[in-house]
Amino acid sequence: MRLSVRHRTVYAFDAPMRWIVQSHRLTPSVCVSQRTIAWNVAADGGEIGASFVDGAGDAVRTLTIAGPVDRVEVLVEGEVETTDTSGVLRNHREAISPRVYLVPTAATHPDRPLTELAAAAVKGASEDDALGRAHRIAAAVADAIEYAPGATDAHTTAAEALEQGKGVCQDHAHAAIALAHLCGLPARYAVGYLFAGAGEDGVEASHAWAEIFIAGLGWVGFDVANRCCPDDRYIRLGSGRDAREAAPIRGISRGGAVEALDVDVTVSSSPSRSQTQQ
Amino acid sequence: MYDGETLREAYASVDAWVKRTPPEVIAQKQQEAEALFRRIGITFAVYGEGGDVERLIPFDMMPRVFTEREWRKLERGVKQRARALNAFLHDVYHRAEIIRAGVVPADLVYRNEAYEPAVVGIDPPARVYSHIVGIDIVRTGPEEFFVLEDNCRTPSGVSYMLENREIMMRMFPELFRSIRIAPVDDYPEKLRRTLASVAPPKCESEPTCVVLSPGSFNSAYYEHSFLADQMGVELVEGQDLFVQGEFVWMRTTQGPKRVDVIYRRIDDSFLDPLCFRPDSMLGVPGLMNVYRSGGVSICSAPGSGVADDKAVYTYVPEMIRFYLGEQPILKNVQTWKCADPADRMHVLANLKDLVVKEVHGSGGYGMLVGPASTAEQIAAYAERIKAAPDDFIAQPTLSLSTVPTFVDSGLAPRHVDLRPYCLVGREVHLVPGGLTRVAMREGSLVVNSSQGGGVKDTWVLAD
Lengths: 278, 463
Description:
Chain A has a single domain (2-271), classed as C8orf32 fold (Roll), CATH 3.10.620.30. Chain A is 20% helix and 41% strand. Chain A is built from six helices and twelve strands. Chain A has helices at residues 112-121, 130-144, 158-164, 169-182, 243-246, 273-277, and strands at residues 2-24, 34-43, 47-53, 59-82, 146-147, 166-167, 187-194, 206-214, 218-222, 234-240, 249-254, 259-270. In chain A, strand 8 (206-214) and strand 9 form a beta hairpin. In chain A, helix 1 crosses helix 2 and helix 2 (130-144) crosses helix 4. The longest helix of chain A has 15 residues, at 130-144. The relative contact order of chain B is 0.18.
């Protein structure tokens, strides 16, 4: 599928900021399931530099803006050709050992209800069938945490989301990561875009899911909220141990003003060769 | 100082001086020394105690003395260890051959809280991670040196080494004229050159180095400002630096100045809120991105802490064999890992004879010295071990060497250790001397300044 992305983030400050720094993870991953046709990240008045590929294979860049500045717009536009690999992240170059992703962070820290949910999820499943256990984990989280926008915020932990029984894709991913850890499976947080399909305008096109490491297969994505593995509707940008580490834009500004954030993401499909072949 | 009954050769000249100096002169000199320290302002903040947190570290005028021959062996051993630790750090952030070979367990590295996934695959200049390695060494016999622990992040105390020497030279100029003592005062210049030698490839002129301090409330702030002053570089705090484009810049009265090498004295987790703790106000936002893209060098490199963990320590002799193909010159103290069930049983059954330490602890806090503890203290500590066995290691109580130390009743033997400071840049360098710490209480084996330890000047005699 050929997907077009337009991702606009506007930060507005009620008083001019002295200075802004952002770390961007806004470039599509290089892997079998996606091929970048065109991609551009622009920020008015800013300087993009300090670029590198990190140990997880993500292209990271740095935006700096010297103030005074009261408005920043980061515009990501591009086109990606995607293929369905059933959620398996193939030919993705990365150097970090999967075992690093067995360590919880504050967001994925296990508590007793998460531990009990993990035990219940894989009860009766074969120890040897890691993929089967991962699917059960994803299903258990989907059953335990209802999709409910607004019930949680950016700082909600996996344990808190489970206690509420409500959350969004971030909470689903954190909970799935926590459960996977409890079952001895390395797991991490992946971010990207989702094409929800024509007429699904209300659905958030900026998306997150869990990736679980399966020996022999590698990293496999699990989108708990949609009860599926990522396919050709997904564009992957990067990963981290939790939402904070994986954030497409992580920023800080000095100056003390209140920030208003406006994010607008559209993902649409455009006719492509591969689609006409199907 | 004594081999049985014989005075070790190294101390002969010092002993002669003590014998011909009247006790009242010595007492007066000791007072002068303390007054000098107060005037200079070296004090040490002690955590976990009420009252006066800024305390003067007791300074003992009797120097600790090594012959050149003794020192050469120590020097080879320390440099060997510093090289192996740096090879290990490069390896665990790249191909991890030592883990693949089954020499070091994967979980010890990958699940270690000091392991930083954010720097995997990053190549620091000259492949150096730990640029100042402080290795704590004890002596148990004429030729027997043991390493107690490695400090690969930002070992403190080198300012005491320099100040102790300065004060000794001012008070006893005649001793320094009659005895050939290797100088240590070029340490700051050697440190500056070490830092400059690891400037990033993007730096094309004389590198600008700075010392990054968390600020004046930090217990080692004196040392930060002292070293910056001695090296002739700027002492900065996070707010003095900013990231713009490809580089890190320092605010100066003449406008922004590019910074190439940062000798940081703040912990990894506070370095950059965009990479580590988001609430840190001490660091520089974006610093890690500039570091990882090769625009600035950070000393020690982020992630170096994984090499000085007390559980990783037990593998250092293996690292030396694995990376250098050499036999370790300095020995490790036998260490039981409480994470291991058999070791744990041994430790719990022998607590009264052992020293038990927290794996991630430092500064002598939270340790148990079995022979010096009551039955109640031992029983309480046993419960702590059982509750979190992974957090503890145990070692035998070593019969540490003693050196003569001035106490109220005159000269008396007190236990000491030694921390030499090894500089690792394009070259490896060890200053002939170090920080000798002394347990001022009779029989005590705990030399940490936070636990009432004192310091001495350390002499290496030239042949």
